[in-house]
Design goal:
This protein is an alpha+beta fold. It folds into two domains: 115 residues, NE0471 N-terminal domain-like (2-Layer Sandwich), CATH 3.30.2020; 239 residues, Clavaminate synthase-like (Double-stranded beta-helix, 4-Layer Sandwich). Helices cover 24% and strands 28% of the residues. The chain has ten helices and 24 strands. The strands form seven sheets. The protein has a six-stranded mixed sheet. It is elongated. Bound molecules: fe (ii) ion.
């Protein structure tokens, strides 16, 4: 048993690392050396994450402890660390809690481990982006194949599955093997083919500039599956653009333009005879670390701006700059899809489009559905067995601490 060795001031302390297992109590936090790294944990955070029987619903692991009731002065009255049983603390409110070393490692919230837990993102090269490809049988029938496909979508923002049966609604069946279809105001399974009565430009044979679908929702669908049943027409090559790579280039070249697109709300609308969708948001939405989280780009669905007079020209300057990058061919993949190909795009990141085609030269028919990226990441966690929370303290089936 290793007991708390000494008291220091609050917060991380620079300097040499103490021996493995050294526990140091500060005023508001403690540090513990695990795997040669000094790890810091606030008392309020540890108290909040107690797995003591009184603080949890045993069967579901949900929290019973009401977090706002934790006193600001919460601190250990006793604390010790043992490599086998972990960190044991008696808190000033009388509760005894234990935190295993494995649990502390997994939830260490210092910068390096926190960033290491994000899924890897590889932006596309400036030229000749090559998309990862997988066979339908591997993705549908094997865990390893499905995991590799989900990893690729998460990292690269797009992947192609080949050999998908050219059957009506096969795209829906594929979606249901990896998650759930996201329903929108229009068809659950959307047909894209030449249709003079269609309600958007996708139903014409004209070029479709790279875009994201349905920015006319406050939360646009974040995954899109596009399944080619047949593609015999001349032309109509698919064009995908890594929007996050384009935005990274814009941010490097003109941070002011990037900021403008993070700030200025743009209204978008898509409607049919029976349905309407409309939402107004900035084209770029960042996460709390300043990374791009959601990118909306649909020139064809943008509606008149309604912003202060003195912001209008700076928005158009920023939009022009971004449009030039997207149109440049950098960060773009251009390829002819065959019947049986299914393209997956993380559609908060990757734009999709097509070159014009000649409808008289052959049939071109694809079906697409929407999904949510969250569900694909969840599927990945389940396949890896990572979805169940790791209890901080080991218990037997009766709930007794082992
Ligand atoms: Fe589209």
């Amino acid at each position: 048993m290793i007991e708390a060795t000494h008291l220091t001031g609050a917060g991380p302390v620079a300097g040499s690392v103490e021996p493995e297992g050294t526990l140091t109590l500060g005023e508001r936090s403690l540090s513990l050396v695990l795997d040669g790294r000094e790890r810091h944990f606030h008392y309020v955070w540890l108290r909040d994450n107690s797995w003591a029987a009184a603080d949890r619903v045993f069967l579901s692991s949900e929290r019973k402890l009401f977090t706002p009731a934790i006193a600001t002065t919460v601190a250990p009255t006793e604390a010790e660390f043992d490599p086998d049983s972990g960190l044991s603390v008696r808190w000033t409110d009388g509760q005894q809690a234990r935190y295993s070393a494995e649990w502390l490692r997994r939830h260490d919230y210092s910068q390096a481990p926190r960033h290491g837990r994000r899924h890897a993102v590889t932006l596309w090269a400036e030229t000749d982006a090559e998309l990862p490809r997988f066979s339908h049988a591997d993705v549908v029938d094997t865990t390893d194949g499905q995991l590799a496909y989900l990893d690729a979508v998460a990292e690269h923002g797009a992947a192609i599955v080949t050999g998908v049966p050219s059957a009506d609604h096969e795209v829906e069946r594929f979606a249901e093997t990896i998650g759930h279809v996201r329903e929108v105001a229009f068809e659950r399974v959307h047909n894209v083919r030449h249709d003079p009565t269609g309600y958007n430009v996708a139903h014409t044979p004209e070029e479709l500039k790279p875009h994201t679908d349905l920015p006319s929702y406050n939360w646009p669908p974040s995954i899109q599956l596009l399944h080619f049943l047949t593609n015999e027409a001349t032309g109509g090559e698919s064009t995908l653009v890594d929007g996050w790579a384009a935005l990274a280039e814009l941010r490097r070249q003109a941070p002011g333009h990037f900021d403008t697109l993070c700030r200025v709300p743009v209204p978008y609308q898509l409607f049919s005879e029976e349905e309407d969708t409309w939402a107004e948001n900035p084209m770029v939405q960042l996460d709390t670390d300043g990374n791009v989280k959601v990118f909306r780009f649909s020139n064809q669905l943008a509606q008149p701006l309604s912003i202060p007079f003195d912001q209008v020209e700076s928005f158009y300057d920023a939009y022009r700059h971004l449009g030039t990058i997207i149109d440049s061919g950098r960060h773009r993949a251009t390829f002819k899809s065959d019947g049986g190909d299914l393209i997956t795009v993380h559609s908060h990141r990757v734009l999709h489009g097509r070159l014009p085609y000649d409808p008289a030269s052959g049939a071109r028919h694809l079906q697409d559905v929407y999904m949510e990226f969250d569900d694909l990441l969840a599927r990945r966690r389940v396949l890896r067995g990572e979805h169940k929370p790791l209890a901080a303290e080991r218990r037997d089936v009766t709930g007794e601490v082992a």
